[in-house]
Amino acid sequence: MRLLTHNLLASNVKGAKTGFPLKIHVFVQEEHETAFNKAFLLATLRKINWIAFREAADSLGVPNLPELPPDLDKCDDSMLRKYHHALMEVHVKEGYLICPDTGRRFPITKGIPNMLLNEDEVC
Amino acid sequence: MGNSVGKEATVQESVAGDTGRPPRKEHEATRGSAAADERRTTEDSPTLVSGLRLVEGIVDTSGSPSEHDILVAWIRGTLERGRAGELPGNTYAPIPEKWRKRNQSREMLQFGTYTHSNRVETHVPVAPLPPELDAVVDALIARGALTELQRPDSCTINLYGPGQWIPPHIDNPAFDRPFVTVSLCSEQPMVLGRGMVWPEGGRGPCGDDERLNEEHALSLPVGSAVVVEGEAADEYEHAVPPVTAERISLTFRRRGRPGREMDERTERAERCRRRCRDVRGAIVAAAEARAGGVRRGFGPVGPIGAIGRVGPPPAKPAGRREGSVIKKPMDDDAEDVVGGGVLSKNAAKKEARKAAKAAAKERARKAKPTTTAVDGTVFERKEKVRSCPACPPDLLPPTTSDANESQCADASCVAPPMYGEDAGVPVAEALPSVERVHVQRVYDAVATQWHGTRYRAWSGVEDFVRRVVQPGSLVADVGCGNGKNLPEVESLGGFGVGCDFSVGLLEICAVERGLEVFAGDATCLPLRSRSFDVALNIAVLHHVSSEPRRRKLVTETMRLLTVGGTALFYAWALEQADGGVSGHHFESQDVLVPFHKKAGVQGKVVVTGGSGSGEKEGEETRAGGAAGEDDDGDPTAPRVYQRYCHVYKEGELETLFEHIKSWVKVNRVYFDCGNWCVEAERIA
User: Fold this and answer.
1) Which terminal residue of chain B has fewer beta carbons within 10 Å of its beta carbon, N or C?
2) Which of B233, B253, B273 finishes a domain?
3) Model's pTM, two decimal places?
4) Over the stretch B464-486, which tens digit does the pLDDT of each residue have?
5) What are the sequence ranges of the domains in chain A?
6) Which part of the chain is the Fe2OG dioxygenase domain (chain B) (predicted)?
7) Which residue of A has its CA nearest to B418?
């Protein structure tokens, strides 16, 4: 699971209010080089929730992202590459996603978050 | 290579029918001068359709043995090696069994790029372009058929035996234009048209509507090259009628680079393909109506079939004089249907309805298992239809949904503001046991084998993806299965996230293909609202067991989109002409579709999120003992799994969008390869 995927996920367990952003608890993380595509990155950075991205990056040990969404028109390539790395190259292989409202843990196995719910967790 | 001066095809205009109107400008055929052999633009080259050029004498036929003879000998030798299994990968392609009877295929040798049924499959290995063909390529360039920049990187050699033919098609837009076909052994015609239907008896089935059946024939002399680009390549289908003598053709093409040019070409070709299909559907439906519902065509042809699913034409064109071109101008009235671009929404819908009705008729005809051909030969029709029994009603959730369920579903159907950026996502509901046992578990158990046979996106889906995905597009693939739709998204510069409830399939996505996926319930997606540009919902809706849940699935998929975002839905149709593409026949709308798991194929053993934990033994027994996962049995033993499916009647799929029409617009409804399809856009 990349942080871009994380930025799109939300918990829908019974009792959740927004279910977003999910907290990340990591057991195993990997880095895989991905081609840097500036057009893609700029388009994507405009769409993501920055706060969730920054917090998630923090929890994966990729710190020092700006507190607030950067002005993308003024970002130089080295900054963009940093965002690219955090968003696209860091993968959570084993761990948990945690619902911010209920604390429900969703396991991540082989890089796949399992958001399926038990019968007593649905309405 | 040959020194002979290139002759242009002489063009003879013959007006079929009595319309008395001048042909449309772009079809204007003018008499050409047999001038110099230098490269011409299409403007000064007299051709029947713009973008078509004939350059003769590419392969020299004089002398003994001639260049032609030497080349043919090499091809035959290579063919022998291919038959003996000595060529690498899939360089040699035998005639597929299912086409043998209809002669609708040829033995093939492919170099550089592997294609199958006009699909480019880059992962299938074939030999590179061999040096023996270099001389031909050099001659093509020297004679101006191609420029050096257009130097081809692949060649498909088709070996036609007498009677063999190639149905109307548009060459895959993944290949650059122009492409070139060199003809050897015998002079045979090539036919161009838009919506050609080739029935028995030598006359179009359209009778009075002959104007619809636009057709131009061009004879291809031995050693000549026909250069195809522009309108001829992407706005006409071309075909080779049954050949009267052995013919070898060498089609040289160059793989294009993905980009704007290819996108535009794809869009253009796809528009034409649809138009041709609609015309064909209209012609066949009209013929059927006249024949009292009995179509006496050749082969298992439905009006709704993809390109090329029509029977062969009469052998008549083969007898035409060499170098002559006969053209039938279209009636101007046909403009609305053929030339006027995309059909209006209602017209398209009407066509789809008509097509589906014809398909249903086909099915009704089933009692008679033979088809009579042109010459009176009676063929046995394909009887390999897989019958799918009705799903036992007690497996299905109650039709009058209990208060709890309907409340849940209705709540999710309210207008979208409910799902604002910060409002969170709707709370999930329980998966009905039929979907858990007869869908989720089946896919988990058969994941590996399933994956092995479905490695590529359906072309209709791929076309949609190419049309809407742009660099930076976020794409949700709801019910992604083994992820076959996602690589295309990536190659277009988009980012795809797949969701499925079969963890077995997801492991294939993530581990084998490195795709971004998660496990989730498609009727209640754990994804933020208004966060995706594009959504795919392919072959998912037919696994959902109640109408409220189907509506909810649609709502959920649309909820993910930003305003202006589009989604594509595909669901299996009840109407399957002659068993359709997949050979299934559905006895009811709620059916169990058997999946035969082969011995030795290991199902993925998975633990799902737990919704299956309360499973009772009795449910599997009730399912006829052939469903669900057998925990005690040998996971590698062969067995039949029953997949639950709800197949959609004509007109049914779009009704699932009615309750959200305040914020979702259905842009297109159509039928493709046994599926009903909807393209919908979020408008608020």
Assistant:
1) C
2) B253
3) 0.50
4) 999 999 888 999 999 998 888 89
5) 3-115
6) 151-256
7) A18
Cβ separation B531–A116 shorter than 8 A:
no
**Where a domain ends, among B197, B229, B253?**
B253
Q: Which residues contact B172 (CB under 8 A, 6 or more apart)?
A: B115, B118, B119, B120
Within a domain: B585: yes
Q: CA dihedral defined by A104, A108, A109, A115, rounded to 10 degrees? A: 60
Q: Please tell me whether the interface predicted TM-score (ipTM) of this complex is above 0.90.
A: yes
Q: How far is B396 from chain A (nearest CA, A)?
A: 18
Q: Is residue B403 assigned to a domain?
A: no
On chain B, the residues whose CB falls within 8 A of the CB of A105 are: none
- How close B164 comes to chain A (CA, Å)? 47
Q: Are B524 and A12 within 8 A, CB to CB?
A: yes
Identify how many contiguous H helices and E strands chain A contains and give both numbers. Answer: 4, 4
pLDDT of the residue at B57: 92
What is the mean predicted confidence (pLDDT) over B395-409?
49
The domain of B575 spans 423-682
| Cβ-based contacts under 8 A for chains A and B | 130
Pick the CATH number of A3-115 from 2.130.10.10, 2.40.160.20, 2.102.10.10, 2.20.25.10: 2.20.25.10
Range list of H helices, B537-592: 547-559
Task: List B639's β-bridge partners, or say none.
Answer: B597
Q: Is B401 on the interface with A (CB under 8 A)?
A: no
The answer to whether position B2 is within a domain reads no
- In tens, the pLDDT along A49-77 reads 999 999 999 999 987 889 888 888 888 88
Q: Which tens digit of pLDDT belongs to each residue from B546-587?
A: 888 889 899 999 999 999 999 999 988 887 765 555 566 777
Q: Rounded to an integer, what distance in angstroms lies between the CA atom of residue B399 and that of residue B550? A: 13
- Determine, yes or no, domain membership for B412: no
What pLDDT is recorded for position B64? 87
Residues 6+ apart with CB under 8 A from B499: B476, B477, B478, B479, B480, B517, B518, B519, B520, B522, B525, B527
- Give the span between the Cα atoms of A102 and A115, in whole angstroms: 14
CATH number of residue B176's parent domain: 2.60.120.590
Residue A34 to chain B, least CA–CA distance (Å): 12
Contact B234, B272 (CB under 8 A): yes
Q: Per-residue pLDDT tens for B351-366?
A: 666 666 666 655 555 4
More confident position, B29 or B437: B437
Contact A113/B at CB under 8 A: yes
- Asked if A85 is an interface residue toward chain B (Cβ–Cβ < 8 A), one would say no
